[in-house]
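Encode chain A's predicted structure.
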Amino acid sequence: MNKSGLIEALSKRENLTEKKATDVVNLIFKSFTDELKNKGRIEIRGFGSFVARKYDSYMGRNPKTGSNIEVAAKRLPFFKVGKELRESVNSKK
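Encoded structure for chain A:
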């Protein structure tokens, strides 16, 4: 499922206009992004948690030229799956 599929499903299930469903989905995604930018943590019980992990700079290699390049330090989002979601995905229903 992608973002437009999520908007469509929300719109149908909750009998919302597509505009309102889009606003709801965008609000949720923006709130998640803002929380991770501010070094926060998002936890949805039964689903999982999101954090932004910090990675130090390192020496990498340009695959095209083979020359060494320094890769800058960065923060990337990381998702840890919750127990209930993991078990439901692995169930044999």
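Residues 3-90 form a domain with the HU Protein; Chain A fold (CATH 4.10.520.10).
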